[in-house]
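Researcher: I'd like a structural prediction for the single chain below. Treat it as a standalone chain; there are no partners to consider.
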Amino acid sequence: MRSQPLRVVLRSQTLNLFEDTSQTKVFAPKRARTRTTPRQRNTKINSTTNNSSHTNQNGHPLTSKDGNISTLPIEEKLIRPSISANLPNNKTNSQLSRHPPLETLSYELNYCLQDKHELVPASQCLLGCVIYIDEREYISIVSKDDLSTWSKTITDHGAIVTDDINLVNLTHFVCAYRTSERFRQVCKRGTVRMVTAHWLSDVLQRKKLFVPNLAIHYPSPFEPNEPDKLPLAKYFFTMTGFEGIERARLRYMIRSLGGKYSGHLSKWHTHLLARENGKTNKFKKAFEWSIPIVNGLWLSELYLGNTCALKQPIEERYKRLNGTPPIDHFSFDQIFVHDLLLPWSQPIRITDEMLNLSIRRHNEQQHLLSHLPDMDTDNHYIKNSYHYNEPIHSTNQSTINNNETISIMLSGFNMKTLNYYETIIKSLGGKISTLPHNTTHLIMNRFLRTEKLYECINYVTYILNKNWLDKSYEEKRFLSIEESDWIHDQEFKSIENFFKQSISRRIHRQNRPLFIGYTFFLTPSIQPSQIIIKSIIYSAGGHVRREFPTIKRLITYNEQTKLPNCLILSCDQDKLLLKDLHTYNNTDFQIKILSIDFLLQSILHQEILSFDSFIIKI
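Model: Treating it as a single chain, here is the predicted structure.
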């Protein structure tokens, strides 16, 4: 199978299920194959609510953290959050809205989940699920140890992982393809939900069970061992307008179907996947060169087995990019997965005893988290990050200016590499830091938006790549910092290193924490978890309100900051909770609801950015 890296994040374990190292080759355009199968009816799967969901506006992948397990870098958790309210437990196959809301990235299907679904704690989101993983389809790309860790993570979230495919109460069968005899055997039972590792990853990321709503959540109907017979074996693609997780998923589908992908456009390309109409140079060139331009819907339905999408001329619905209603690039016709949706018409049974046990487990995990700061961090290096529970106002930089004491925090390393660099630091006389405000150097494996980065940038003097440690180890001493030692991010292209500029701004204001005097209120569905966001706010000197702010606080200014007394950080999922606030707006003042990116981007730049780019419209 040809594939592109798509991270499957399972709390403490990242699985590179789809590593692609092959070089892109150019194929001359071939005429699309046609089949004489009847045209399928056009009943799209769309949202059951009017809410829409977005990834972060700047494409940030965000993290969540559970228990004592270390949190993966934010970039490695580039997964969409959930949208919509709770699903009714007793509705089956109800009529769905034909058209999705604007820019819907992840819609919910109106099927059944668990009994008492609304009472299940987030940390036990897989409660009642009995899962069989077809390891034969993943063992070639995932090690045995990773699969073992994967199973443990699933179990920690309330599910039972079984190796008995004939188990009567089996609820989920995890596989990549529909072509195996094992798949056919289980699917005939009609009660087992057939899903992929992508779906399982998204459930664990959202911490919420949901009906598969993306094409890659369903096993592929094509035989991977016959690459020449895959529907896109002679096709060559590029795309425009898609970013982040959207781009990764589309790339994965292209390569799973046998297609070739490149980042540039040439006359040899057979198709351009476009998000919008006429916005980019690629789009204009494709139009000039008569290269077919299609939307994401075309690829999603093809992935699910609709080879009629390859017919010429291409159906208008596959070419539509603008207009009313707006196109949802990740919707698809329900008819292609009708049989796979049938098991979701019945809820997963959960007894009162199971529910009570899951609540006790959840409370134990929360209790463990709340006591984490009391652990001895001086003599034992804790692998997971410390969470701040109150604002930090310290501006003491004596440790940073003292060359004799170098306190280093590592970020973005796997366990084996982490232990290796810890040994190097100790051998050179440095100290392993677990508290950002006591850290002088943040060393990163590569640039990743991790929680440690957002907290350490408020205090450290240097944010460096691992090469500095490697060179220091060779010289048996900590070397002076050179320009090439700084971590580099392609997104921020400037003559001077971006992070060096940010730290200079902080030092220029005498290391005063960025958000001193600021108060924030966080809405319930904000991502990453509130524990992480609170810790980031506190590390920057800000405060967090537990209760919803009064209208008076929202419409009055703080004399010190010249900003509202309280800023609301929210997301699209919580728009309904805030819909009445606009009634209090007037010509003199408007209540502004901001996305989490306002906080994160301001911390990275070490300056308060303008609200205008981060306002969520209610």
